């Protein structure tokens, strides 16, 4: 790797990392820099996501090559989970979209990308910024004017090392647009409180709802409480009813009541019904929106329903069959039609002809232990929850149960055994 190698960081996001013999190590998720009051910011390492969604620190001293589409390392990777230090900044997470001032007096610009370059002494520095001028006012269509873009040397701007002032999140989200919700949740969790809220607020309602469901409870509460109240209610509507109810359980009663008032009546009613149950019962864990069909529905139509992209895999494994009405609480519950059985039958046949009428069911007050035993004993991914009149109230899926069985901090806990491996020697940073 020759001196003068330059890489723009936004293009580096997601790049595969390999060891010297070509075996994959992980993917680049961010770049760690020391932003100093004087001098160019120095790159100290990469944040690399390794299998198991663990983010680790890879020092630049162990990077032997950065080429198009790949990063090559010396093969030594410390598997201790990455923890950002006080003087460090994440390029994608914290520097993109930051407002800085041009030293020539021509105004303010926002940072859309940065380039890092290897110096003759082997150090990596931020040497250039790809920026966009901030244009005041709006166009005739009511949209904010987009200023001209330019590439400037890093020493051509001031305030890069100062605190964030109204930082946006467009460039960061563009770099992470292909991330799964769980992975983007990991990124948000690692950001500071202010930056986390800025990024969350820039997501659309559906994307933010998906990400919230993957965050620890403290982060969920912090983000929802930081949003404007009507926006928070819209996000709750976009969440699965059981996840929305779990989140409202963590809020002060007055705040939860206000948000329920602002939600659409039908969405709020589903959540209110779930809030009435204890959290560790079938009623408290269930979703009120499984796939529910009438017995006359064709198998072709049933398969189309479970192919929906927004449907969790556990709920796509089974169709719940009931008499009208088909919204919970339904008419009389008839049974379930399992996905594999549907695949074996003619598409024009009725779902009612292939239902399992002996399927195990739960009452709303069934404790967590009973739910777990039934799922395990019958190798099921979801179970119906019925009232005394055999009306379907909802369904409990295996992922709902796992959320209640795992410790509260499972999203943050380290993977056991990965913090002490032969090659995991500590490397000084900074």
UniProtKB/TrEMBL annotation:
<protein>
    <submittedName>
        <fullName>MgtE intracellular region</fullName>
    </submittedName>
</protein>
<dbReference type="GO" id="GO:0016020">
    <property type="term" value="C:membrane"/>
</dbReference>
<keyword id="KW-0129">CBS domain</keyword>
<dbReference type="InterPro" id="IPR027275">
    <property type="entry name" value="PRC-brl_dom"/>
</dbReference>
<dbReference type="GO" id="GO:0015095">
    <property type="term" value="F:magnesium ion transmembrane transporter activity"/>
</dbReference>
<dbReference type="InterPro" id="IPR006669">
    <property type="entry name" value="MgtE_transporter"/>
</dbReference>
<dbReference type="InterPro" id="IPR006668">
    <property type="entry name" value="Mg_transptr_MgtE_intracell_dom"/>
</dbReference>
<dbReference type="Pfam" id="PF26205">
    <property type="entry name" value="SH3_actinomycetes"/>
</dbReference>
<dbReference type="InterPro" id="IPR000644">
    <property type="entry name" value="CBS_dom"/>
</dbReference>
<dbReference type="InterPro" id="IPR046342">
    <property type="entry name" value="CBS_dom_sf"/>
</dbReference>
<dbReference type="Pfam" id="PF00571">
    <property type="entry name" value="CBS"/>
</dbReference>
<dbReference type="Pfam" id="PF05239">
    <property type="entry name" value="PRC"/>
</dbReference>
<feature type="domain" description="CBS">
    <location>
        <begin position="355"/>
        <end position="416"/>
    </location>
</feature>
<dbReference type="InterPro" id="IPR038076">
    <property type="entry name" value="MgtE_N_sf"/>
</dbReference>
<dbReference type="Pfam" id="PF03448">
    <property type="entry name" value="MgtE_N"/>
</dbReference>
<dbReference type="InterPro" id="IPR011033">
    <property type="entry name" value="PRC_barrel-like_sf"/>
</dbReference>
<dbReference type="InterPro" id="IPR058838">
    <property type="entry name" value="SH3_actinomycetes"/>
</dbReference>
